[in-house]
Amino acid sequence: MRNVKSDFKNYVLQNTNPQKRTQMANLLENKFNAEMNGALTPSDVIDFMTQFYGLVKPEFRQSVDMILDANANIIEENHYLYEDAQLESSLLAAS
Predict the structure, then answer these.
(1) 86 SS3 class
(2) How far apart are alpha carbons 78 and 26 in whole angstroms?
(3) Whether the Cβ atoms of residue 7 and residue 74 lie closer than 8 Å to each other
């Protein structure tokens, strides 16, 4: 699960407005920590999704339903999207 979360985080950060990436990284870490501690309430999910949509690039918003379900859980079946993003980042960094 750790790779899924890490890959997911990298994928989302690539699709976040550059000036808001630190804020998004903190938002994701806080959500992951709350999940791990069993402290994520329905209100927290609503707050998370509201902030999440506000931080990602507008053109990415329509793709969010491919990576998060309605309860803000990562859709692991679509992990290939995150892996593709990792590969793309690696290739860009190497060139």
Answers:
(1) helix
(2) 23
(3) no
Is 74 in a helix, a strand, or coil? strand
What is the torsional sign of CA 55, 51, 59, 24? positive
Encoded amino acid at 20, one letter = K
* pTM above threshold 0.70: yes
Question: Closest by alpha carbon to 76, among 15, 9, 1, 14?
Answer: 1
Place of tokens 């060139």: 95
Tens digit of pLDDT per residue, the chain (95 long)? 558 888 889 889 999 989 999 999 999 999 999 999 998 899 999 999 999 999 999 888 888 888 899 889 988 888 777 666 555 555 445 54
